[in-house]
Amino acid sequence: MSTEKLQTENASVTRDNHRRIRVIALIDGFNLYHALDRFEGGLDEADRARYQKYKWLCLTSLAKRFIASQTEELVSVEYFTTLPTWDEAKRLRHETFVSAQRYMGVHVTLGEFKKKAVLCRARCRQDFEINVEKRTDVNIALAIFDHAERYDKLLVLTADSDQVPAIELLRRLHPQKKVAVVIPIGRSAKELKKACGGNAYKITEDHLSQCQLPNPIPIFKDGRQVALIVKPTTWT
Fold first, then answer.
1. 125 in the Ramachandran plot: left (φ > 0), alpha (ψ -120 to 50) or beta?
2. Rounded distance, CA 11 to CA 17, Å?
3. How distant, in Å, are the alpha carbons of 28, 69, 76, 202 from that of 156?
4. What is the model's pLDDT at position 3?
């Protein structure tokens, strides 16, 4: 073998050995939101609202807290959520948050809400309608496999055990891939942790406080500031 060819092969091996582990984060938006909106372990209503002040969260910065900077590379943050259509104020606040995430490079997949008739279990025994989120769980499960060629390690941010079958199938079909659950603050996810082979991270209040978006976020086009994305005033 020629010296030149040997050097080329050695360089190729070196590049392969030093290639960073590609990481993709899949974020269950409403699972994360409800963990921030209401801390079930709170002693009173004020305590249960303790994490609401962290809703203006930078999802990219948060995901980076759970990768090894020297050996891993965050290649994509995928955010799955749904816009509430029955409340204009809530919809506008959530659209603002989604716009901020998109501007920060997050890819957003939207589901939808549908009406569902349920029976009142109190004395009235009447049917009434509630809004039920649809497609998010399925969209996340599909993304686990749709993006499989793009990652070596998968972070799934949720406490929803509905993702257990998809994660178990991923580990059977792609045993070489790593997968870990990132558990929202105040939640537990024993089934998900087991499905991930014990690989789990826990979001802490320090993570939340250190990963807030700037407010406002200046929007630039062609080198000029053209707009601002402003944190909803009720998220204080």
1. left
2. 10
3. 8, 18, 12, 12
4. 45
Q: Nearest-5° angle of CA 205, CA 228, CA 112?
A: 65
Q: How far apart are the first and last CA of the chain?
A: 67
The b-or-e profile of 25-63 (16+ CB within 10 A means b, else e) is: bbbbbbbbbebbeebeeeeeeeebebbeebbbbbbbebb
Per-residue pLDDT, averaged over 129-155, amounts to 87
Domains of the chain in start order, with CATH, are 21-229 (3.40.50.1010)
Q: Could you give the CA distance from residue 62 to residue 54 in angstroms, rounded to a whole number?
A: 12
Alpha-carbon distances, residue 36 vs 50, 139, 142, 186 (angstroms): 8, 22, 26, 8
Q: In whole angstroms, what is the distance from residue 94 CA to residue 191 CA?
A: 30
Beta strands in 53-105 (DSSP E): 72-81
Q: What is the pLDDT of residue 8?
A: 47
For residue 38 the two structure tokens come to 């209401």
What is the model's pTM? 0.86
Q: Across the chain, which distance is largest between two alpha carbons, in Å?
A: 88
Copy the structure tokens of residue 76. 């994509």
